[in-house]
Amino acid sequence: MKSVGAIVVAAGTSRRMGGVDKVFANLAGKPLLAHTVDVLQRCSSIDQVVIVLSEDKLEEGRRLVKEYRWSKVTQVCPGGARRQDSVREGLERLSGCQWVVIHDGARPCLSVNLIEEGLKEARHSGAAIAAIPVTDTIKVVSPDTFIEETLPRQGLWAAQTPQVFRFDIINEAYRKAQGEATDDATLVEQLGYTVKVYPGSDTNIKVTTPEDLLLAEAILKSKERG
């Protein structure tokens, strides 16, 4: 495959972290963000990485690039008000890429295999996302918290990242974006493209609360033990 770029989306507000910016929180001895970018740095298929941060964290992010010697990181740039605005900023800073891997910076338990599987699937379909089948019963609830509908679990998958796209597809999706989307695949779907789902991982958690940090640390330590 030709040049593969990765965008690490890490410009969120960390509202549920009690005043701590989760991507710079200490996780198993180093900032959470470092675990995420280390995996992209190790992945032989990734050629360049753009890290998207909030404006007030840019210098801290650039310091990490130097400290951890992330040679694949070409830019650390400011994000926007919404996640999709941050991804758009990252897309504009990739150079000469045929493929794009988009990953949430707050998912530090990423694996090289998960990236490679996404790239393999995207080669056939143009777009592929990691996801896991839903195991809980899902209720549709009214604004006043009464159940309106119970959805059958069959066919329901919880989307994760990485999400992998041919550059021209994801670039078009962001240029023509209508409304707000919580993940990248939604914008691609809106254009009528088909998106392949491939198995993610139960350990590929997104850190949103202090309790998630404890779980992520346990997962990372378990991986170290092999």
Task: Give an overview in words.
This protein has 226 residues and is α/β, with parallel strands linked by helices. It has one domain (4-131, 157-225): Spore Coat Polysaccharide Biosynthesis Protein SpsA, Chain A (Alpha-Beta Complex), CATH 3.90.550.10. 35% of the residues lie in helices and 26% in strands. It has 7 helices and 11 strands. A 7-stranded mixed β-sheet has the order 5-4-1-6-10-7-11, with helices on both faces. A two-stranded antiparallel ribbon has the order 2-3. A two-stranded antiparallel ribbon has the order 8-9. The longest helix is centred in the last third of the chain and has 16 residues, at 210-225. The radius of gyration is 17 Å and the shape is globular.
Name of the top-level CATH class? Alpha Beta
Q: Which percent band covers the strand fraction? A: 25-35%
User: SSE string, helix = H, strand = E?
Assistant: EEEHEHEHEHEEEEHHEH
The main β sheet shows up as:
7 strands, mixed
Quaternary structure type: single chain
The overall number of domains is 1
Helix count, DSSP H or I runs of 4 or more residues: 7
Shape field? globular
Strand order in space, largest sheet: 5-4-1-6-10-7-11
Instruction: Extract low-pLDDT stretches.
Output: none
The CATH homologous superfamily is named Spore Coat Polysaccharide Biosynthesis Protein SpsA, Chain A
